[in-house]
Structure formats: C-alpha cells, structure tokens
Request: fold
Amino acid sequence: MDACAFERAAPEISMAKIRSLSRAALASLSLLAACSSSGADDSAGGAGAGAGGQSSSAGGGGSAGAIQRGGASGLAGALGGSGGAAGGSNGLGGSGETSGSGDTAGASAAGSAGESANGGRGGASGAPSQGGAGGASDAGCGVSPVTPNATPQARQALCYLYAQYGKHILAGQEENNDDNAMNYVFQTTGKYPAIRSFDVNNDKASSQCVAHTKTGGLCMFGYHMGLANGQDGYDSSMTATDINQVLTEGTTLNTTFKARLDKTAGELQPVQDAGGVALIRLFHEAGGTWFWWSMQGGAQYVRLWKYAFNYLTVTKGLRNLLWLMPYDGSPDPAFYPGKAFVDLGGADDYAGDGNYDPLHSLYEKSVSVFGTSMPIALHECGPIPDPTQLQATGTKWVFFSVWTDNYPKPPSNSVDHLKAVYTSDYVVTKDEMPKW
Reply:
C-alpha cells in the first residue's frame, strides 16, 4: 500500500494497531504529510495537537484522524503543524503537518514537547494557533534558518534539532572519502549514524550525502581549505595566509578563495537538488592557531565568515544550509559572527582514548557564547561522551560527530562503549530520524 493509500485508509486503523507498529514504521508515517490537504479533519481532538510521546500510555491527544493527517512518530514531532496522537509507553506520539489547522477546541490544542517516561522521542511544543507537536513553520517552533529563503527541509531540520536539544543527542560520524567508518559502526552496533560528516575535499562527499539524505539522515560539511600558493587540502590549510588579501576583490588570493567557495557550492548543490539539508561548519576549530583562518584573530575570522556566508547564500543561491559555528576546545566570543549568521553552536575536543567524559566544562563555555536556547553540538570528537553522564550532568550536546579513520574503534571507543552509545534511548540513530 503506498503512502497516500495508507492515508486514505487511516480512519479504519485503530489506535491499538497504531501503537503496535515499530518505531521505524511510525517514523516513516511522516511521509503522509505530503498527502494531506490543508484544513481537513478539523474535528475536536481529530486535528488537535497531541502530546507527542509525553504520556506513558495511550491517549491524551489527537484521535486516529490526527494520525491520518500527520501520522509521524514523536521523533518527527518537530516537523508537525496540526495534531498528533499521544504516544504509548515507548513515547512514539504523533506529529502533524505544517499546513493543517490545529487550533480546534480541546485541552491539548497547543501540543506539548513529547518525552515518554522511558525516553521516547517527542516533538517540540507547538503554538495553539498552529496546533500540533511543533510545526515546521516559523510560528510553529519560533526559529528560522539564517540562510535567506531557506528550503522547507532546512526549516524542518532546524526545528527538529531545537526539539531534540536537551532531550536527546544525535549520533554522527565523519568519513574519509569512503564508507568505512559508517560500515564499522553498523557492523558493530546494528545502527547507522543519524549524521554523516564530510570534507569538501573528498570527491565522494556529495553523492554519499545524497544517499544518506534519501534514507532520512542529515549531513555536515567541513573543509580543510587551502589557499597559499594555490594549494588546497590539509597541509595548505595550516599555512599562514593574509586574510586582508583574501577578502580584497581582484587579488590572487581572493580569486582562489572564491574558487574554493565555488567548489564548496558544487558539493552542496546536489544535496539541495535532492531535497537534502547540509549543516556547514566552515573554518572549523575557530580560535585555534593552527589553521590560517584563525591565525589573525577574531575580527578577521568574522569578516571571513560573513564573506563566505554571503557568497554561498546570495551569489551561489544555496538555500539548504544550516550554519554551525565550529569552535575548538576554548570558545572565544571574539570569533563569534553573531546570531544573524549562525544557526547552531559548536565546539570540539578529544578527551583521550577510552575517556567518555561528557565534557561539561566545554559545554558550559559554549553556552556562555551562544546562550541557553541555541542548540550546541560536539561537532568533532574522538571518544563519545557517555550518554548516562550526559544526562546526569545536564550536558546537552545536540549531536556528536566522531572523527574518521580509527576513532570509532578501540582504543578511542571500545566495542562495548560504541554498542552502549548506539543502543541508548538517549541517542538518536538514523532509523529514528524523521523523513525530510
């Protein structure tokens, strides 16, 4: 049965049958939003906002009519606009779609953030006038991407990350122009990372990201960008480069810099064409003195960031980008471009082989720069912080991304630890992601 046929048949499905579906099957029901029409099923409760995965048993939210309209799991709640059924004991509540009218009468018309007693994924709160568990529209979740005219998928992804922040952490894995790291994770844990991370210099990055996007994942792009002597790559990225010349139109360095940004856009455009979202962490480990973009201080770094932002979004017309500010292990506010140019905060650190510390001090330093509401990621790491310690210390990294090569493996991450992370209720893997 295709998604639209399922949607038409949804009123015939009992809530008991809905709750019996697997987590992955429920997550796939987010596809039904594309089949629903605006304003349908607006009866009391039917399109009212369900408490996405908040209750420990069924009930307390929308009826099967809400499942017909939105039909996603609580994990996909950030995508919803109108209504959804409350989750069962596994916290898999329903979310709605962006265009429906969920402001019908009923006690649950506003929708609440979903969170079951045993860690089921829920949606973000939705405004009463929007209904549902956290609509993907600006009014639904209260934030918009800084990218001008961002794609609906980019808006949905940002709302989703806000909804997960402080409730769960997404699993991420960097690749080295192959699938070895991802495959190792799957072979070891039976799960795939929610986020795959790539370097623009890797010629397979774009196609890898498109494939990951089509199966529900998110992607992140960094770049060991080199400019000196016309070279590109890791070694050149660590060569001192005059940023004044880089940003002066018509100079050799400026021409090279724009060519590098064109290369970046060439990797990101196919992702946009495929309906995917790209988290971008250009000029990573800001504040350090080893990469040329950080060697000349915060003011020059900010100039560089804004130039790249305008070039990629205005000149190149990319609309699927979420901008992550990628600090090193000592976040310095002098390097921060400001909220008008940043969607997500970030810092990185390698705690040492087998050290699964939550890095709470680094997280708090990051909060001092980004504030308490913007999601902050551990955008690069070796050992993965222990999920139990993350929760116990209130260290709210929205995702982690393990470096490539041998870092997913011992001695950085033991086999037992990797399994414990990827099977934790606190950790979101690709099979638990909504479909964009």
Observations:
- The two ends are 21 Å apart (CA to CA).
- The longest helix spans residues 252-273.
- The beta strands are 169-170, 172-174, 195-199, 218-222, 278-280, 321-326, 344-349, 376-381, 400-402, 427-428.
- The mean pLDDT is 77.
